[in-house]
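Much of our argument rests on the idea that a fold can be written as discrete symbols. The record that follows shows the chain in one-letter code together with its fold in token form.
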Amino acid sequence: MQMLVRHLQQKKEAVLARHGLKLWEYEILWRLRSAGEPYRMAPTRLAQGLGVHPATLTNRLDRLQSAGLITREHAPEDRRSLLVGLTAQGAETWAAVIDDQREAEATLLAPLAEKELGQLADLLRVVALAVEDGGPPLMPHVD
């Protein structure tokens, strides 16, 4: 299992490098995208979801905003609060990375027949649910 995880991690790192992203940049884009439309969330919630200190996140958001991948705007319901959101460029970058990752996963799973893919998906779902039962969810949940 560790060898497969290492293989997928190497593929992911190569994909991110092709798109000029670091892992932490991708993780921020992924969190925003997983929040659902309009792909925005409060920086505090983003920091908690990423498990980083708010000051660290602020520095990272500065860099992503300079790159044109995110925006920071006042929340419409409370002008004292900020929301971090994906720009069109950020959403396109995220989608391109996901497409490349899907391709790498498809190549890895190509030796399996359709029935075997279904069985694998069912088994992985059981493992994922067991892991979530003992800790935080593997996928972010939309509020």
The chain has a mean pLDDT of 89. The beta strands are 40-41, 70-75, 78-86. The radius of gyration is 17 Å.
